[in-house]
Design a protein that fits this description.
The chain is built from 5 helices and 7 strands, in the order E-H-H-H-E-E-E-H-E-H-E-E. It is α+β, with helices and mostly antiparallel strands. The structure holds coenzyme A (COA). The site of coenzyme A has 22 residues, from helix 2, strand 4, helix 4, strand 5 and helix 5.
Length: 147
């Protein structure tokens, strides 16, 4: 079973590992914010999560850390979701497990996401989980999953 460790409880080395993943080209190039994040920005971001009731970030651990999953714009019944996997361990089924096991813990009726239209692998990945395409906004495609 995957353990989801809140970013606010990460050790120093876990924080650094997450930053390394997030700054890898294969992850950051697919994010809306694609520039390299400095350690200061990263630590500030994690500190702010302690008081932000609309945002939750988790490190997914299966014996070892395998990826990150997060909720943003959390409302009563819905939230925006995002995920990235350790760049050295993509395509091994971890993303699917992280997302599926996380979803069943949620007390929401739907989750939605924005993915770059050019990120065809991720769109295929989300469709396999059951997300449906909703609308286009600029270079992004919105997708939704009813839980
Ligand atoms: C997208 C991402 C989370 C998928 O996680 P992953 O661990 O690599 O994917 P998995 O191995 O769990 O694949 C799950 C399913 O998606 C499919 N899939 C994954 N990568 C794919 C690809 N490149 N092309 C087509 N299908 C793909 C797999 O075939 C698999 O299908 P199956 O269940 O029928 O075997 C991961 O690759 C990632 O972190 N990418 C960079 C960041 C990113 O794009 N995040 C999303 C931004 S919105």
């Amino acid at each position: 079973m995957i353990k989801y460790k809140n970013f606010t409880e990460l050790t120093g080395s876990e924080r650094d590992l997450v930053l390394k993943w997030r700054n890898s080209y294969s992850v950051r190039s697919q994010m809306a914010q694609s520039k390299v994040i400095t350690p200061e920005e990263h630590y500030r971001f994690i500190d702010k999560l302690k008081t932000d009731t609309h945002t939750q970030y988790f490190l997914a651990i299966l014996k070892e850390p395998i990826g990150v999953i997060y909720l943003e714009n959390i409302e009563k019944t819905k939230a925006e979701i995002g995920i990235y996997v350790d760049p050295h361990n993509m395509g091994k089924g971890y993303g699917k497990r992280i997302l599926k096991e996380f979803i069943i813990t949620l007390d929401l009726t739907n989750i939605y996401l924005k993915v770059k239209e050019s990120n065809v692998p991720a769109i295929k990945f989300y469709e396999k989980i059951g997300f449906k395409r909703t609308l286009h906004k600029g270079d992004f495609l919105e997708m939704i999953l009813w839980i």
